[in-house]
Design goal:
five-stranded antiparallel beta sheet; about 30% helix; binds guanosine-5'-monophosphate; about 140 residues; alpha+beta; binds zinc ion
């Protein structure tokens, strides 16, 4: 299903032009207009899903396999030193376009992408409490 008001539905389905580097029946992968680094691309399903929680399981599997393949090809073509896959869900997590997408971000020695976070410190009690909370019985 497509969502009328969604820009990534329009891009993924070719209604709005994009710098496409890969396309198949399920996905389009195109360059980000505001790249974190040279070659930053977005892997987007043609069907609309707001986020990871909504994403179809089969497409989820295919997305990761495709990301792996493209990351390898991009690394070879761009000569980058590393690679980040980034996927934001919800405004709090930095999502700005509410159609599931996976960022493919080539990394270069000394680049300014700054994909990092402040490291906290988990106490043993906290680890125990969280393990009990999160571990599936
Ligand atoms: P988010 O913040 O939701 O994880 O990522 C959205 C990404 O989409 C951003 O990196 C932003 O630069 C990119 N973006 C937003 N609108 C467009 C557009 O119209 N075309 C392209 N190519 N990228 C877009
Ligand atoms: Zn959409």
């Amino acid at each position: 299903m497509k969502k009328e008001s969604c820009i990534f539905c329009k891009i993924a389905n070719g209604e709005i032009p994009s710098s496409t580097i890969y396309e198949d029946e399920d996905f389009r992968v195109f360059l980000d207009l505001n790249p974190a680094t040279r070659g930053h691309a977005l892997l987007v399903p043609k069907e609309h899903f707001d986020n990871l929680f909504e994403l179809d399981d089969e497409l989820c599997k295919k997305a990761m396999v495709l990301a792996k393949k493209l990351a390898g090809q991009m690394k070879e073509a761009l000569g980058c030193d590393g690679f980040n896959l980034v996927q934001n869900n919800g405004e709090t997590a930095g999502q700005t376009v509410f159609h599931f997408h996976l960022h493919l971000i080539p990394r270069y020695e000394g680049d300014t992408a700054g994909i990092t976070w402040n490291q906290g410190k988990a106490s043993p009690e906290e680890l125990e409490e969280l393990t009990a909370l999160l571990k599936k019985k």
